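S., here's the first fold you wanted:
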Amino acid sequence: MTENLLSHKECLLVREQANGKLAFFNKQNDILGEQVFEILNQNCRILFYPLEDEDVWGFFERIHGKSFVCINTSIDFDKQVFTAAHELYHLWFNHEQELILASELEERTTNIPKPELMANRFAAEFLVPELLLRQEIRQRKIDEEKIDEYTVVRLARVFLVPYRTMVKRLAEIQMISAAQCREFLLLPEKKVFRIRKRLGIDLIERSNKISLDNLIDNALSVYEQGQISRAKLEYLLAFANTSPAEMGIPDEERLDRPSDDELDALMEE
């Protein structure tokens, strides 16, 4: 953690940016959670797709002046939420295209570019505002002197953020020491998973969702206007892992071909 520190001034700037955006969307008193996707959707076009490489949490590109963010739905849902918040920083303040790597979002490597550190801190401030986190700790009557990995797992579920994000957030607001932070960050993923199971915490797992922005709506619209064939509609909907039947469009009626005897009778009339 020591290799990837922001300055005090940079931390204050990011906090101000996050608080400003929360105020703009009137979310200062709300735990955002999955609402972050709706905010992201207001600022770019989102593609949800299960990428094979789970080390890639998504990517951000600008194509012909339009911004596109892809979220990898093969990773756990809390990580998808963090990815969305991370990308909001780039959309609003940094504007850099990027491949979103787990190693950089979780800061498990050294020499992470400064914009990525700023985006990570922004996502943490945006999803877990200090005021709301302290309120949650008070409401749950959590003893600040006895915060352990079980407490971290519970709080991470409340705010729908990854375990590692909550560990760092608690350290950032000085609710845990630097030594505790290092200890908690060393906890293996399997151990975190077992703690969730033990506590009966229902974490939204990976969904493998496929949603390609407004592809389905546009495809159905041009089909309904008679601009494309059913075969082309089926081809387009297949990208979103759906079909005309699933969208309430019945099979096209096939005209019954007359038999040879019927054709002969018609010809003799």
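And the second, which I think is the more interesting of the pair:
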Amino acid sequence: MSHRTHICFTFAGDVTRDSRLRRFAAAAAEMAEVYILQLTDAPDHSADAAETVNHNGDDRVLKPLTASENESYRVIPFPRQGSLRSALPRFWRQASAAIRELGCDLVIASDLYTLPAASRAARKLKCPLMYDARELYSSVAALQDRALMQRFWTGVEKRYGRSAATIFTVNDSIAEILRKRYADVRVVRNVPDWPEGAPSDRLREAVGIRPNLRVLLSQGGLQRGRGAILLVNAMPALTDCHLVFLGEGDLRGDIEAAARFAGVSDRVTVLPAVPSAELPAWTASADLGFCLIENLGQSYYLSLPNKLFEYLAAGVPVVGSDFPEIGALLRDTGAGIAVDPSEPDMLVRAVRTLIDDGDRYSRAKAACREAAAGFRWERERTGLLQAISGSLPPA
């Protein structure tokens, strides 16, 4: 094994569909050899998942590794069988063993769900641990009505998070809360590393959208609390628009049922998620983007989703929730309109304002470009690299 410095990331998901982890790993690879140990039910559809592991129950899980063809890091997939809850204990054991076998010099948990594996491995190796708290996990929407599970995950974060040398998060509002619990909390925003978005007709061509219809886009996971049904219910009043969801999740069936019930199935389409490297062309082909988050807990209320920055980079005006982070950004930049997501009429009026007023739309589109220039990954990357380099052993 090479004596070069090694960094291991852990993650519950597929890195090809997660732009934040992809950017973190690519940045870290500038100073070390990087591995991503991911628990995923995604098919092995790219070179990013070229490595294999032995899942026969042994603690020694690694087979010889082959570098990914198109990325600067290596991915070790742990195929998930059954629910996330049932798969995690085994992943914690095997991923921790794999990290120790790799002999990593720094371990970074890219979410709460894999933090125990990362923490245990770091403790055994006596190396630093970092943790990316990309949500306010103590109040995630998915656990709003599951008090027992919420207490469990809050306890997991308190137990293992306190051993992290540095904790990253996505915005100032969440950082302010986390700083009451942890010493070193740093903000690394979910801004894209895209070049300026070029004009595209990808969505219109893929769906076959009529030329006289405006393309409305909601990209990201199809999950409760992300405004999907609210958007579908607005479509009867937006007869000159076609709504496209670009993503995957448990809510797909509900979206399609709501569209049928509202009589707008011909103008509502759900497309599967695309690899993050291909996303810019899809996003840039929309006329309007939605960042409509519902207030299902403090984590959602204080969120600042990466898709908001992706819309800006693609030059796509946004209608988003009037919450502390999303609303402030839209008002400060002029890149769209902030609305109360619980007011359907307000949502429709915001869409109509942007697509019916050509001057207003042009100003918002120009504001997207201007704002995107200030939200560049190069700036966030600098702070990330400083934190990582400060935790690595001397060369």
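Why I say that: The domain at 6-191+377-391 is CATH 3.40.50.2000 (Rossmann fold). The mean pLDDT is 88.

Talk tomorrow,
H.
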